[in-house]
Design a protein that fits this description.
By secondary structure, the protein is mostly helical. It is built from 2 helices and no strands. It has a domain of 34 residues. This is Toxin-antitoxin system antitoxin subunit.
């Protein structure tokens, strides 16, 4: 069973350098770049929310 997360849409300004990095990684891995950015933010929040 896959549990669906409660998500919210947001608008965020990111540097062109960051977007280029994630798009390049996306091409290499086949994972959508927005999913990659979401995962990085989720991992960061999880790490620092428990301190």
């Amino acid at each position: 069973m896959i549990i669906k997360e409660d998500n919210s849409k947001v608008t965020i300004l990111l540097s062109k350098k960051s977007i280029s990095f994630f798009k390049d990684q996306s091409k290499k891995s086949g994972v959508p770049y927005q999913s990659m950015i979401k995962k990085v933010l989720d991992l960061y929040a999880d790490k620092f929310a428990h301190k």
